[in-house]
Amino acid sequence: MEIEVKSKDENEIVFIVHNAEVPFINAIRRIAMMEVPKIAVEDVNVIINDSAMFNEVLAHRLGLTPLISNAKAIEGMVMAEECDCEEYCPKCSVSLTLKKTGPGIVYSKDLASTDSTIIPVYDTIPLLKLKEDENVDLEAVAKIGIGENHAKWMPTTVCAYKQYPKITFNEDAEVNYDLADVCPRNILKSDRRSKKLKILDIENCSMCKTCMRADENDYIDIGYEKNIFIFTIETDGSMPPEEVLLKACDVLSDKADKIIEFSK
Q1: Which residues of 3-22 are buried (b: 16+ CB within 10 A; e: fewer)?
Q2: Domains of the chain
Q3: Contact 247, 156 (CB under 8 A)
Q4: pLDDT tens figures, 87-107
Q5: pTM of the entire structure?
């Protein structure tokens, strides 16, 4: 199996996987979404909330506020169910406090964390609005979990793959130059000088087959390359996408080891 990275930034990575099969690729996708640990607000202890927002809605917003969850930030922490404490402790959780007086909008940057490495990813997420002399005072307890239990623990916003597109032309058929205008992604370009259609960006092809449906001459055929996939992982900023991929591979490897051990 070979991996070719096409693009990468802080929150997204796009890579091509060669010589792999659908079950393996799909297993990586599902694990990256559902079984990679991430930290998020689980419990909210509201002391004062004078705003018009219900406590339950505010707690929901806090839970969906992404917190930095990279390997360095959560190093040494364990899942809540694996901890021997009665409710929560520094080993399995982080406390964030919010104390503000109106008027004004309360943002995610107003959350004060007991751990300087575990803070909101973005400072400008609006949490609630306070009018004159209205107060909010609460403690939010963040714990490590997985997306299988709740969407707030999903590190990915996009985690998808597609088979590598394959476009072929029938040299015996008459060239249909109008197909270049039909393609919704401008993959094709008509070249009347060379009397053929050119492929501009095959990896951007969605294999929608709009061009095939408009082709009356059977000139073009849309398919895919066997065992080659374009994989995209985009995160909410809580951890780098390559870290999500590596952790997903580790989880899959552990599952395989358990099956091998069970089969002995």
Answers
A1: eeeeeeeebebbbbbeebee
A2: 2-34+157-232 (3.30.1360.10), 38-149 (2.170.120.12)
A3: no
A4: 888 888 999 999 999 999 999
A5: 0.89
